[in-house]
Amino acid sequence: GAVVSQHPSRVICKSGTSVKIECRSLDFQATTMFWYRQFPKQSLMLMATSNEGSKATYEQGVEKDKFLINHASLTLSTLTVTSAHPEDSSFYICSARPGPLRFFGPGTRLTVL
Amino acid sequence: SQQGEEDPQALSIQEGENATMNCSYKTSINNLQWYRQNSGRGLVHLILIRSNEREKHSGRLRVTLDTSKKSSSLLITASRAADTASYFCATDAGTSYGKLTFGQGTILTVHP
Questions:
Q1: Cβ of B42 and A93 within 8 Å?
Q2: B97 touching A, CB under 8 A?
Q3: What string of DSSP letters covers B50-101?
């Protein structure tokens, strides 16, 4: 099946720094990718829909200036958590779709100290 | 916001028993999908059922969909310890981008 990778898998940073997470579709092109956030023992919350060559569409309550999304190519979308704070600590998962099915990356565990 | 609600929130069974998880949703859908997530890992797609389908099978998995009740169920037969994971339903409302809305999930523990 299709493969989606994320990098890094785990990051620990100090409060106030910015962190960039990459999501790549390895064997297919994805004009649309999705970014989710998942807190411990909770479900996935959609943060934004990333569209290649255009601005991302953010879900209600998600700060677009806080979570910068860049979808510069058909195989790469990046999520940058700017000026990270401890409350941003979470599991971030991306997803891409070559068709009706969605494929998910392995996730990035962000810990902000 | 999360559309789906799943019950039970947690399910603990013995190996060999069947596990049934339910999912309810609120809006019209194009299809409904079930995913599995092992602790701290990404999601694995299990099965997709379209809005015009009522039942679908895949190996030990059986999914039903009742669009009149806006509900779905996932049955895992003859469970194994390796089935221990969180299971999520996700609805595709057929929007242009095809975004999924996830349910709260069921944590399944299968004891050997």
A1: yes
A2: yes
A3: ETT-SEEEETTEEEEEETTTTEEEEEE-S--GGG-EEEEEEEE---TT--EE
